[in-house]
Amino acid sequence: MNIQQILDNRQCFKLVCGAGNEDAEQVRRLVFVYALAGASIFDLSANEDVIMAAQDSLKRAKSEAALCVSVGIAGDPHVSKAVIDADKCISCGACHSVCPQNAIADKTVNHQKCIGCHKCEKVCHNCAISFVSQTKPVSDILTPLCKYPISVYELHAIGENEAAVDNDWAAVCEMPSLMKSLCIDRSKVGNERLIARIRRCLDGRQPQTTIIQTDGTPMSGGKDDFRTTLQAIATAELVTKYNIPAYILLSGGTNSNSSYLAHILGVPIHGVAIGSFARQIVADFIADPHFWESPDIIGKAIERAKMLVKNITG
Ligand code: SF4
Ligand code: SF4
After folding, report:
1. What's the rounded Cα separation, in Å, for the pair 123 and 106?
2. 176 contact partners, CB below 8 Å, separation of at least 6
3. Does residue 109 have its Cβ closer than 6 Å to ligand 1?
4. Atom of ligand 1 nearest to the CA of 96
5. Which residues does 32 contact at the CB level (< 8 Å), separation at least 6?
6. pLDDT of res. 221
7. CA angle 151, 191, 15 (to 5 degrees)
8. CB 57 within 8 Å of CB 83
9. Which atom of ligand 2 is nearest the CA belonging to 102?
10. Does the model's pTM come out above 0.90?
11. Is the pLDDT of residue 23 over 70?
C-alpha cells in the first residue's frame, strides 16, 4: 500500500522519532521495532545519519513503511534545544530524572539527544535552563536530503510568525515528495487565524496531497489516558468543520486511546502520530546495551509496540 492508500483506509500509525532527535542509534532501534510492529510512517529529524539509520532498519525489517522528515519554524519547540546555565545550576538532579532522552549530564545537555520537550525547564527551580532554536534556513536544511527516498516532508508551524510559516512552508513544498505535512496547534493562535493559516498553505495544492497534523499539546503524551489527547482531537474537529481537502493525523499527547476517543467523539481522522508515549513504552529495551544481540529484548519491545499499533489501526 502506498501512503495515500494507508491514509484513505484511516489506518495510519506514524511513529514520531522526534524532529529534534539526532541520536541515530536510538532511531535505528526505534524504527526496527516499530517497523516490525506494523507502523506505516516514521517521522525523523532532518539529519542524514538519522535518515540512513532509519533506511537501514526498514531494510532489515523488510518493511515498506514511509519516511517523513520534519523541520520547524524558528522557535518551534520541536527544533529547540535546552541549554543549562552552569552558574545558576545547583546540581539538584531534578532535570535528569524527568528527561525522557537521558540527554543531561554534568550541567550540560547532549543536543543530539535533546528533543526540546521542555520537561527539564518545568522542574528547574533555579531558572537555569533556556532554549536555543535552529537558525539555518529550512531550504538549506532540506536541499541536501533530496537524494534520500523521503515520502513526506513536514513543517512544524507552531508560533505566531505567519511570514516564517509561509516562507518555510514554501521551502517544504519545493521538496520532491508528492505528500507534504503541516503540523499545527492552537497554543499561540486562535481558531480563525489557524484556519486562515491552513487555507493559505493549502492554496494551490492538489486535494489529498497534504496531511494536517493536529498537535494537541506538543510532546505531552507520557500518560495513557483520554484527557491528554483531548486538545489534538479538538483541533482535528475544528479542521474537519472547514472541509479542508487534506488528511488529518492526531499528534501531541497521543497514546493508545487516541483513535478510540476520536471515534466515539465522531471526529473523522486518518490516523495517529505518536511520539512520547510510543518511545516511552519501549525505552528500557531500546536503551539496553545488548539490544542487537538479544532476540529476547527485541521480541519484548516488538510485542509492546504491536499492542499500541493495533490499538490505533484496529
Ligand atoms: S533542575 Fe536546574 S538546578 Fe537542578 S540540576 Fe537541572 S539545571 Fe541544575
Ligand atoms: S527534558 Fe526534554 S528539553 Fe530537556 S534536555 Fe531532556 S529532551 Fe531536552
Report:
1. 17
2. 146, 150
3. no
4. 6
5. 57, 60, 61, 298
6. 67
7. 30
8. no
9. 6
10. yes
11. yes
The average confidence (pLDDT) of the chain is 94
Among the residue ranges 72-76, 148-152, 232-236, 286-290, the one predicted with the least confidence is 72-76
Ligand 2 geometric centre to CA of 80 (Å): 9
pLDDT tens for 75-84 read: 888 888 999 9
| Nearest atom within ligand 2 for CA of residue 98 | 1
How many A from CA of 81 to the centre of ligand 1?
15
d(CA 123, ligand 2 centre) in Å: 11
Ligand 2 pocket: which of 114, 122, 124, 220 to mutate (most atoms within 8 A of CB): 114
On whether the CB atoms of residues 180 and 150 are closer than 8 A, the answer is: no
Sign (positive or negative) of CA dihedral 76, 20, 299, 4: positive
Q: Is the CB of 126 under 6 A from ligand 1?
A: yes
Beta strands in 86-195 (DSSP E): 104-105, 108-109, 129-133, 152-156, 179-184
Ligand 2 geometric centre to CA of 96 (Å): 9
pLDDT digits (tens, 9 = 90+) for 276-302: 999 999 999 999 999 999 999 999 999
Size (the chain), residues: 314
| List of domains in the chain | 3-74+134-313 (3.20.20.70), 78-133 (3.30.70.20)
Tell me, using a 6 A CB cutoff, whether residue 93 lines ligand 1. Answer: yes
